[in-house]
Write a structure and sequence with these properties.
Length: 564
């Protein structure tokens, strides 16, 4: 029985039908098996088959295909998701399509939600996940906990291996069968010593076995909610970038004796990773590996969300029953199950559409950077996901394991990525990029803004207070991508001011009369700004002219505001 359980646990999954290959358990007999033994083996076999999560779905496969045979548009999808997710159209569509790519061979996506607390990061990820099986949601998870909780122990030869405690328990049980506990006065102390020695022998035997800790993440959706930092992501960078489908990792751990010992971890397959955090601390190496998304923070969304909460919290049983009985939601769940059962490994793009897509991307990005090598695949991923959503109406390959995209898929993918393309290319969460474009950039001109002024603008724009740590993080992020820089205030060296960098200054327009040179009335910039006596704002040319005139007039001139 024990060996049979192991064989089921490590059995190979048939990707085309998503069923587990199960064979009747091997039973060792002395002589011919009895009728009772045959009945027992058959009962166990049938019980395991009945527990297979795909068994019932497999019986309904044709029915599911018929239900999902119609074309589904992004608007149809958004309307269904809108039953529990108000507004956030782009976020929920990208998230759903990203989850859907989980059932391909190598197109799984990594998605990071970053926004202030209580904006709906975890809610979005978990609510969309209700339409999908194979979801693992995790709270705070350290790298070591992630490896130990998800791993299964094997020998280096690929055979299942019991944990140490189980290995000792079973080994001592067999030893006690051969060495029964003696009666009183028949050498109990020697029996105890022999048992201790056997325990030591079994422990050494287990330690000498070459071990592999295998984590099977193939086609799993893993959601990390409320992560305070990104330490785990740094350990699995190769997994996030799909460098290898079988990733070998070595970590150092303490053995029972307190010594350092190397553990060999093997991660199998590509998962879909979703990372939710309010503290944006992602390193550039992680930023480029993720979709960067932020829940919307508009008043319309908050109002709709509170209305939905009033319905849910006032009568949970009724609300849950309505959601469970909703035909459109159930139809979408059936569609996801049907797509999974289709076993589509690849979504293909023909040469003509590939050239069309490439030309459009290069035209929109004349100055390429290294980051575009990861941004372009995300565009292709959206196109493939839209085709996979409607795989029942797409052209199939001969073996049925691949489908071909259409012009509609290209159009919808390009349309969907527009809203998040710029922020992702900059490496900024969309809510920070939106604040920069719509609020900070138009006002950050000429002689700069203090940190307190930046915080005030943030509060005015998002209706949220920004603490000292958050303010420093905001300025740091904008500085790292080259949008702003900080320098001491020329009037008070104790303070720092934030200035726009590069071409951003030239694009800014004056926002008041103070932004014009008092003499020549030309716009002032950080390059030509000069202060006269620390008060009057002049361009460098006019300031020099005043200095020459002041020199001619004598030392008492220039004490007032005006010098003629």
């Amino acid at each position: 029985m024990k060996s049979y359980r192991r064989s089921i646990k490590t059995g190979e999954e048939n990707k085309a039908t998503n069923t587990i290959s199960v064979t009747p358990p091997p039973v060792s007999y002395i002589g011919e098996p009895s009728e009772k033994d045959n009945r027992l083996a058959e009962r166990i076999h049938n019980e395991i088959l009945s527990r297979s999560p795909s068994g019932e779905i497999l019986l309904q496969r044709e029915e599911l295909r018929q239900k999902a045979s119609n074309e589904m548009s992004l608007d149809d999808l958004a309307n269904i998701l809108d039953t529990t997710i108000k507004e956030d159209r782009i976020n929920k569509l990208i998230l759903f399509l990203g989850y859907l790519l989980n059932y391909t061979a190598e197109d799984q996506q990594n998605i990071a939600f970053n926004a202030p607390s209580s904006t709906g990061k975890s809610y979005l990820a978990l609510e969309v996940a209700k339409y999908f099986p194979d979801v693992m949601d995790q709270g705070y998870t350290s790298p070591r906990a992630f490896f130990w909780e998800s791993s299964v122990l094997f020998t280096e030869e690929g055979q299942p291996l019991e944990p140490l405690n189980a290995y000792l328990t079973n080994g001592l049980k067999k030893w006690e069968e051969n060495n029964p506990y003696p009666a009183k006065g028949q050498g109990r102390s020697k029996w105890g010593e022999a048992k201790t020695e056997e325990t030591r022998r079994l422990r050494n035997e287990w330690d000498e076995i070459g071990k592999l800790y295998i984590i099977d993440l193939c086609q799993k959706i893993i959601i990390f909610v409320d992560q305070p930092h990104d330490e785990l992501l740094k350990v699995i960078r190769s997994l996030l970038s799909h460098d290898k489908k079988r990733l070998n990792i070595k970590i150092v751990d303490k053995s029972d004796s307190g010594n350092n010992k190397t553990r060999n971890i093997v991660i199998e397959g590509y998962p879909t990773m979703v990372f939710c955090s309010a503290a944006f601390s992602l390193d550039e190496q992680e930023q480029t590996r993720f979709w960067l998304l932020s829940p919307e923070m508009r008043q319309e969304k908050f109002k709709a969300s509170i209305e939905l909460q009033s319905l849910h919290l006032s009568n949970r049983p009724l609300f849950n029953r309505i959601m469970n009985d909703d035909e459109e939601r159930q139809r979408l769940r059936d569609r996801v199950s049907a797509i999974k059962l289709e076993g589509i490994n690849e979504v293909l793009i023909d040469d003509e559409e590939r050239k069309q897509l490439l030309d459009k991307f290069l035209k929109e990005h004349p100055d390429l950077t290294s980051r575009h090598q990861r941004d372009f695949p995300r565009l292709i991923a959206l196109i493939k996901a839209h085709a996979l959503l409607n795989c029942f109406t797409r052209k199939r390959s001969e073996d049925g394991k691949a489908i071909w995209v259409t012009a509609t898929d290209l159009e919808k993918g390009l349309e969907l990525i527009k809203s998040v393309a710029e922020s992702n290319e900059m490496g900024l969460p969309p809510y920070i990029y939106q604040f920069w474009v719509e609020c900070l950039k138009p006002k950050l001109c000429l002689y700069g803004l203090t940190r307190q002024q930046v915080a005030a603008l943030y509060h005015t724009f998002w209706k949220q207070l920004l603490g000292e740590r958050g303010l420093k993080s905001l300025i740091r992020l904008l500085s790292e991508v080259g949008l702003v820089y900080e320098e001491p205030d020329p009037n008070d060296k104790r303070l720092k001011k934030v200035y726009a960098t590069g071409g951003g200054v030239e694009e800014l327009i004056p926002i008041s009369e103070d932004d014009l040179c008092k003499d020549c009335k030309k716009p002032l910039t950080t390059e030509n700004l000069s202060l006269w006596k620390g008060k009057i704002r002049l361009c460098i040319g006019c300031a020099r002219a005043r200095s020459r005139k002041l020199k001619d007039l004598g030392p008492d001139a220039g004490e007032g505001e005006e010098v003629v």
